Amino acid sequence: MLTILLGVVFAAAALYVRHSYRKLRQKLLAIETVTLELPLLGQKRAGEKIKGTAVICGGSLAGLFTARVCADHFEKVVVVETEDWLSKENGVTPQRWQDAPPRARVIQWKSAHAWLVLIYYALERLFPNLLEMCKAFGIHVTTGDIGVHITGKHITGPYINGQRFGPEGSPKMLCCSRPGFETLLRALVLDPVAYPNVSQISGTVIGVVESKSERRLEEVSVKTPEGTHVIDAVLVVDCTGPGQAVYKTMPSAPPLDSITETYHPKMNYCTSHFALTPEMAERVPMSTYLLPAAGDVSRCLIMFQQDHLSIAISCGAWGSSKDLPTTLEGIREHVAGMGYTAPKHVWDVLDMLKEVEDTITSSLVRCPASFWTHYERVADQLPVNYVAIGDSVGRVNPVFGQGASKALIGAIGMNTLLHEVQGIDNDFAKRVHKAQAGRMKRFWSGTKSADYTHSTTIPAAGETLEHGNIPRLFVRYIQILAPTDFRAARLAWKNMMALDGTSIDIFSPMLFSKILWMMFTERVLGVNLKA
Ligand SMILES: Cc1cc2nc3c(=O)[nH]c(=O)nc-3n(C[C@H](O)[C@H](O)[C@H](O)COP(=O)(O)OP(=O)(O)OC[C@H]3O[C@@H](n4cnc5c(N)ncnc54)[C@H](O)[C@@H]3O)c2cc1C
């Protein structure tokens, strides 16, 4: 009798825990991710568009995502971009990376970029002609398996045992250069037939005018070759990247230092591009990502096919830039000295590239400090119609290729809130800042946690590199499990692709019990587990 009673109590408790876990997870999906908001993208607004102009300052990735979202909600959208050629024909013409004019304010213009699955899901909703345009721009649409290897072991992509990991449909992603992607995006957004209410002007935002009677921006001042131009604004979006140009011109804004966290990952990348023959392009994998395990050696390698028959190979290292290679032989040495075994196909590609070795061009980027500006903490002091999206909110170490997704997530969050309002009310910006902060956390904590495993990282003020040791321990166990366990692989993949991974997924019963067992094996039985 007692056994039956205990059994019933245990079963009820288990059901209760499962129910609570699911409920909490659903809540976290809304706070930490944009998964539930994706279906709203590209949906027609109920009622009339908001009267007046949304002024988007900065016409790079964040500015373009934001402009597209605003096109559905505002009578008029104006993008202001300081680099003149981006507002001319070249800015919307398919670019081979070799021919793309230089970009003065974007140091990573010629660095390898990953375009995560979230980006594909969003773009296909926002632009019905996406596939057609990708074709015209020579951009690959490929399966959403980015080819991640941790210490040389493959973390299987979106399908394992027939299970599909994406929220819907077959996961896909784009594979192309930064100039290719940005120009495609600009051509899509500035399509005068599809979005006649969107335009871009060439000029530098030099100031904003605040209302005398309320906490609201009224005008944006733009310096153009013809003189200063003033635009009346109902919404001002700061998409000027790490320069945070609009915030810096707001007279009433609290000092940036007082709301910005920062640390320095001391990470450097050297991206080398090679031209491919059509036969080589057939044989080279679309994408390979070689990463060290948490707390392990400091080198990584990222390899993507680019648009227009080329490949980008990015060698990265925490700590030192001295040995980053700019020759094929140097890349081979980088791979040989990674401290873990690279998969065979990487060596095959490097062998193949001997034939086109003389086409190599390289671009070294020393990553600046990572930072996160907490606008949400001072939202009550900021204008109610000022928001920031993209790198003007924060910049993370690009090792996981998240910058564009981070910008997109800001734009998606704003789209959801725009669907809920008739106009830009007094709570609008505050809600955008808050939503964005909830989502920025995963990008910030995830990369910081990885960076803090390297002794060369300069930690944030008041922290040591020990900070976050416990979550890092869990990440390490996931990395050990992922090559053979589909739940761990799914968790790793969803997080990597900026999809529906939440901070409690690691506690799902099956996965967590395995982690506890690994802890026991290591800590109590003294067995050393390795990723
Ligand atoms: C080495 C490296 C590799 C990276 N790899 C990846 C990757 O694989 N995947 C990924 O998603 N991300 C990657 N990133 C990050 C990604 O490139 C950035 O997150 C992204 O560029 C941010 O876009 P943004 O529009 O916010 O800012 P930015 O791209 O910096 O653009 C800001 C824009 O504002 C304009 N501007 C500035 N001031 C003014 C002004 N006063 N008036 C008007 N216009 C102004 C600038 O000209 C620029 O066009 C990488 C970054 C680095 C450094």
Name its key features:
single chain, 531 residues, alpha+beta, FAD/NAD(P)-binding domain, Alpha-Beta Plaits, seven-stranded mixed β-sheet, FAD/NAD-bd_sf, FAD/NAD(P)-binding domain-containing protein
Question: Your description of this structure?
Answer:
The chain is α+β, with helices and mostly antiparallel strands and 531 residues long. The chain folds into three domains: 39-139 and 176-262 and 369-449, FAD/NAD(P)-binding domain (3-Layer(bba) Sandwich), CATH 3.50.50; 267-366, Alpha-Beta Plaits (2-Layer Sandwich); 468-524, no CATH class. The chain is 34% helix and 21% strand. The chain is built from 14 helices and 22 strands. It has helices at residues 2-32, 61-71, 117-126, 130-136, 178-189, 245-249, 278-283, 328-336, 344-352, 403-420, 428-451, 469-481, 486-496, 509-524, and strands spanning 50-57, 74-81, 140-143, 148-150, 153-154, 159-160, 163-164, 172-175, 198-202, 204-210, 217-224, 227-232, 235-238, 260-263, 267-275, 287-291, 299-306, 310-318, 361-366, 370-373, 386-388, 394-395. Strands 5-4-16-17-18-15-19 form a seven-stranded mixed β-sheet, with helices on one face. β6 (159-160) and β7 (163-164) form a beta hairpin. The longest helix is centred in the N-terminal third of the chain and has 31 residues, at 2-32. The protein is globular, with a radius of gyration of 24 Å. The chain starts with a helix and ends in a 7-residue tail after the last helix. The model has no long low-confidence stretch (mean pLDDT 93). Bound molecules: flavin-adenine dinucleotide.
